[in-house]
Amino acid sequence: QVQVVESGGDLVQAGGSLRLSCAASGRGFTRMGWHRQAPGKQRELVARIASAATYYADSVKGRFTISRDNGDNMVYLQMNSLKPEDTAVYYCAVTMLGRDYWGRGTQVTVAS
């Protein structure tokens, strides 16, 4: 069973930065990514990394950066120039052998 644990969520002022971390047990994940869900909204994909390829939602391009460590089981989300609309629970998801594993999420709140 793959365990996924996020950390780094916090309350921050608009324009500030946060770095989220995700630790997954095991190795060989074909894809690792961050999703978020704001109150009353559907969960959305924020950023994803697979091999050397990255994907970003339009709403975060130029502000967020996803990265993965050489050990293969950590993924990070550097979030800069945060906006109140970035407020959400951020979830990490990893894919192994075609199956997705999710963490419980970490709260990011951006105050205006």
Shape: globular
The chain-level structural class is mainly beta
Uncertain regions: pLDDT < 50 for 5+ in a row?
Answer: none
What count of helical segments does DSSP give?
0
Reading the helices and strands in chain order gives EEEEEEEEEEE
- Give the helix level as a range of percent: under 10%
| Sheet with the most strands, sense and barrel status | 7 strands, mixed
Mean residue pLDDT: 95
Number of strands: 11
Radius of gyration: 13 Å
Distance between the termini: 40 Å
| Strand content bin | over 45%
Task: List its salient traits.
mainly beta; seven-stranded mixed β-sheet; four-stranded antiparallel β-sheet; 11 strands; globular
Compact overview of the structure:
With about 110 residues, the chain is mostly beta strands.
Describe the protein's topology.
Blueprint: E1 4-7, E2 11-13, E3 18-24, E4 31-37, E5 44-50, E6 53-56, E7 64-68, E8 74-79, E9 88-96, E10 99-102, E11 106-111
Parallel strand pairs: 2-11
Antiparallel strand pairs: 1-3, 3-8, 4-5, 4-9, 5-6, 7-8, 9-10, 9-11
Explain this structure to me?
With 112 residues, the chain is mainly β. It is 0% helix and 55% strand. It is built from no helices and eleven strands. The strands form two sheets. Strands 2, 4, 5, 6, 9, 10 and 11 form a seven-stranded mixed sheet that branches. A hairpin with a 5-residue loop joins strand 7 and strand 8. It is globular and about 40 Å long. It starts with a strand and ends with a strand. The mean pLDDT is 95.
